[in-house]
Task: structure prediction
Amino acid sequence: MTETAVAHPTEPAVRKATPGEARAPRRSGRRRIALPYLLLLPALLLELLVHLVPMLMGIAMSFKELTQFSIRNWSEAPWAGLDNYTVAIDFDAPVGQALLKSFLTTCLFTLLSVGLCWFLGTAAAIFLQENFRGRGFLRTLFLVPYALPVYTAVITWAFMFQRDNGLINHVLHDQLGIGDSPAFWLIGDNAFSTLLVVSVWKGWPFAFLTVMAGLQNIPRDMYEAAALDGAGVRKQIRHITLPSLRSVNQVLVLVLFLWTFNDFNTPFVLFGKAAPESADLISLHIYQSSFQTWNFGTGSAMSVLLLLFLLVVTGVYLLLTSRGRKTSDV
Result:
């Protein structure tokens, strides 16, 4: 009499996988790992062609003696070594003095513009967190400057700041009677204020949109508990809103700084190829040094110096903010 092996009803039968079935999970795992790289490949290729290749060419041009006579065959231009950098940072010479003044003007402009953009965007975002009639309309209205093309917005401001037939002088001088005569807004010392107004008007909606998105992650229970404890609006903003937005503000300030310091379109469209001395931002100054005086080697050296400055500032900023984040977490 033979004995028949009967599997226990509670123990499932174990079947040995075939070689093909064993390789299937490995293949699917490899495909899952390779998929993000395949999706990033078009962006990496565009980044290589649009940014990295021109940047490397600009660095190579900064070591050559490039003028209107040698720009046609720039790869065969005479080797200048560090002469272009020496000219750019020689602050006792006219070229170095002009670059230093433009750099300081850009620093002041960036500090004021980023500060005002952050303040206006944060204040508007906090104000629109409350429910009231017309909130959706105000949110849409505040985002209009960010949605408009840069050239359209800046050209419109350029017409508004015209001395004889601009809207600004019509309101300030003709309607309100401010000043003995209409002011010149696009030339002279007033050009800096004009550029700052246009930059803030164009940039603060981005801060508003970013902060408004960050406010959605703050639980309303924290505000209700603070209100029950007797905390007013100012204390709630100081002890709840701003600390909760720390990570958002760190990224926001860095992005605004890089955009503002490198801004070329706004001064170029507003003033043309030659900006007034009071509004001579370094991006437009490098353009003038390259394409107005036909000294592409010195202009490329200035661009490389600007790149190094931004890299150092960004690295120091990220280092300090990361340390501050770790300290607050502890």
